[in-house]
Amino acid sequence: EGAYSFAAMEARWPQVWEDLKVFTPADDGSRERRYVLDMFPYPSGDLHMGHAEAFAMGDVVARYLRQQGYDVLHPIGWDSFGLPAENAAIKRNAHPSEWTYANIDTQAASFKRYAISADWSRRLHTSDPEYYRWTQWLFKRFYERGLAYRKDSPVNWCPKDLTVLANEQVVNGACERCGTAVTKKSLNQWYFKITDYADRLLDDMSELQGHWPERVLAMQRNWIGRSEGAHVRFVIEASDGRAEREVTVFTTRPDTLYGATFFVVAADAHLALDLVTPEHHDALMAYREKVKALSDIERQSTEREKTGVFTGRYAINPLNGEKLPVWAADYVLADYGTGAIMAVPAHDQRDLDFAKEFGLPVRAVLDTGEEDPAVSGKATAGEGTLINSGTLDGLPKSDAIPEAIRILEGQGTGEKFVNFRLRDWLLSRQRFWGTPIPIIHCAECGEVPVPDEQLPVTLPEDLRGEALSPRGTSPLAAAAEWVNVECPNCGRAAQRDTDTMDTFVDSSWYFLRFVSPHYTDGPFDPAKINDWMPVGQYIGGVEHAILHLLYARFFTKVVHDLGLLAADEPFSALLNQGQVLNGGKAMSKSLGNGVDLGEQLDKYGVDAVRLTMIFASPPEDDVDWADVSPSGSAKFLARAWRLGQDVSSAPGVDFSTGDRALRSVTHRTIADAAELLDNNKFNVVVAKLMELVNATRKTIDSGAGGADPAVREATEVVAVILSLFAPYTAEDLWNVLGHPASVANAGWPSHDEALLVQETITAVVQVQGKVRDRLEVSPAISEDDLRELALASENVQRALDGRGIRTVIVRAPKLVNIVPA
Ligand code: ANZ
Ligand code: ZN
Questions:
Q1: Separation of CA 489 and ligand 2 centre (Å)
Q2: Residue 795: how many other CB atoms lie within 10 Å
Q3: Are residues 634 and 7 in contact, defined by beta-carbon separation less than 8 angstroms?
Q4: How far lies 233's CA from each of 249, 341, 814, in Å?
């Protein structure tokens, strides 16, 4: 059959697989279903090493479950809206779709070469009108439930991309995409009310425990940020022409109310303008200008010197009637809690720093046994007993908190409150290449949703190049013909909403569309959706720990609440693959350490690259391409493949007569591999497979050679297990062994428990120096057991012929010498 040639295999098998529809699920209920999904790619350029790793992992899972007899849904599609396409279009005076679909074609060809076992008939692109029609349809359902709404608010604004960013897209105060420092701007924007789901998003994580990486759950928990405390209402005294009013604060420490010595509102909140007296107005305005430039992180940093301005007003402490000066400062955030706090410098370090800066009083109300914070400069935040606190005196902190809440509730000045860090999801974007928001604005009727039967609202095709340049308003606003429509309600002249949706909206439900991607009566076929959902194994990078995964969970819960889906969590299990590094560092243009996937594939072949990705480390760990050996993988694959050349028994031969030792290794490998695969220990499976290949080669080179049925058995097992990692080599090997395609459907071999028991060894039994019997015994047999076995042998008894025994010399496990009397 000649030499191992990956190029020949890569040329031969894809067409066969496609013709046989090997990877299209039967979807008929004949077998138990499993849904395996890799986070779908963004079409920027060709596939890179990161894709190669993640998709190799996902493919192992999909191929393994198929071998185990499941009907496996393993689809592929593209997350194809987004800024890079738009920026490329501006540069090249093109339409974003040209760049997008050209890249998708390139990636699709690479995925096919990479032999991803995907059902290509379900391919989807979120930028196709037949997809985003249903994104719009879902938006409308959210809108009808009050889960999509518009409000004016200060938003994160990237001055370079001229677009709004979600909180999640601001990293250390900078635009996640371009690194420019993010500023605030007040705009009328669309939001999804994800905060309505904060409790459920948090509580339902208990279902995911043990099936999702703990660090992802921790990041989500922290992002949702549940804080238990109280709302407390302070009356703000009338002053300088300003009326009396109430301001509510959120505090986790109502027990410290007697220690409040001043009151702070977020300087950038509208509340600050409402409160400030004319005398202090100019100072506040000047201060607000400075605050605008700061990120939330900078504002909350404990390192920074505290700044702020007095508003000229006083708040009345509802528990003791004290007058507290109201300040405006940047360390209080406008969009957390209520945007106002009672400051307790003795027990909160930021308040203490502020008090020292502005000479405000410090009063300890909790005796923690530590030095007085007013002296030490260190706020005491731990456990203690209440002091200086009226009726609360003497209570431990844990009792004082509920007691303070009880008093507030009795007076009607406060109540228990649970606050969340999670904000509503800002979804509108002033960019072109996204899903248009299906709303029409009418002077008479207000917001009017586009009727379902008029969906999709498609993007205009004539906007391209320069016309897409960011200018702070959506480029869609310039498409007069597109914008100006009749109001669906009253028929008068009206305008389309010109914002498009954050692309995270598109990716929040694509896993539902894959179940029935060509369905035309809804986002998915209601008769099919519960057959497949939830996704049994989701695979992707940890960079999506918050954004995408939280949004997808939110969408799934809403779709569940709409009565369209039984599941209320999208992904039962999650696997985060590590990164592919080079020289210990992430690959980057600036470091010049990028490795080109195409070059690696050309040099070593697809299978060797895939196998290297899997073998390098446990799936969650990083792979350093500088430390691995794709050429070593290629050598191993050739070695495995050559076994097939040497098998000389026919398919279907009875394995039971084969070499016992090799059979034992084979069956042990089957059993171990299944258990390892069930636990995502893919790299160890490869190591086991290498041992099996070595053992098989050893048997071929000795004894009965390639004719031994155990050699065929072992080689067939090699082919089946190898098919998870190196599909071309495995298919070719399977073919050489005389089996029809495809090895992907061979079925997981069953192992024989009896063959797992330890291999036996032959013990020789002599009587008076003459060999009388041979016994198959365990290598670990004890002297006593072996003596007993030897004496029980019929041949030995016959040789003794009734004589007594003088001595028995036992050398376990190999020899017994019996000396008759
Ligand atoms: C009085 C107090 C006394 C507080 C004390 C803490 C310790 P978490 O746990 O993160 O929810 N706070 C409330 N709203 C704020 C805002 N918009 N910007 C900055 N800080 C704000 O934090 C809740 C605590 O953070 C609240 O409890 C409040 O200070 C402050 F010994 O109230 B505390
Ligand atoms: Zn109207």
A1: 5
A2: 15
A3: no
A4: 6, 10, 89
For ion ligand 2, residues whose CB falls within 5 Å: 442, 444-445, 487, 489-490
Q: Tens digit of pLDDT for each residue in 173-225?
A: 788 888 998 888 888 899 999 999 999 999 999 999 999 999 999 999 999 99
- Sequential DSSP letters for 65-97: HHHTT-EEE-EEEE---SHHHHHHHHHHTS-HH
- Between the alpha carbon of residue 549 and those of residues 109, 212, 555, the distances in Å are 28, 11, 10
Q: Cα 110–115–117 angle (5° rounding)?
A: 120
Question: Cβ(317) to ligand 1 under 6 A?
Answer: no
Average pLDDT over every residue of 582-610: 94
- Does ligand 1 lie within 6 Å of residue 347's CB atom? yes
Q: What is the pLDDT of residues 331-371, one digit of tens each?
A: 999 989 999 999 999 999 999 999 999 999 999 999 999 99
**Nearest ligand 1 atom to alpha carbon 252:** 27
Phi, psi values for residue 23, rounded to 5°: -105, 15
Task: Give which of 51, 163, 80, 43 is closest to 506, Cα–Cα.
Answer: 80
**Is the distance from CB of 309 to CB of 284 less than 8 angstroms?**
yes
ipTM of the complex as predicted: 0.98
pTM of the model: 0.87
Q: Is 94 exposed, middle or buried (0-12, 13-18, 19+ CB in 10 A)?
A: middle
In DSSP notation, 249-316 reads EEES-GGGGGG--EEEEETTSHHHHHH--HHHHHHHHHHHHHHHT--HHHHH-SSSPP-EEEEEEEEE
Q: For the segment 228-239, what is each residue's pLDDT rounded down to a tens digit?
A: 999 999 999 999
Q: Alpha carbon of 448 to those of 442, 560, 610: distances in Å?
A: 7, 25, 51
Q: What is the CA radius of gyration of the chain?
A: 36
Residue type, 427: L
What number does the ligand 1 atom closest to the CA of 381 have?
31
- 342 touches ligand 1 (CB under 6 Å): yes
**Rounded to whole angstroms, how far apart are CA atoms 469 and 161?**
9
Write out pLDDT tens, residues 508-519. Answer: 999 999 999 999
344 lines ligand 1 (CB under 6 A): yes
Q: C-alpha angle with apex 15: 9 to 18, nearest 5 degrees? A: 125
The tokens of 73 are what? 């849904």
- The CB of 332 under 6 Å from ligand 1? The reply is yes
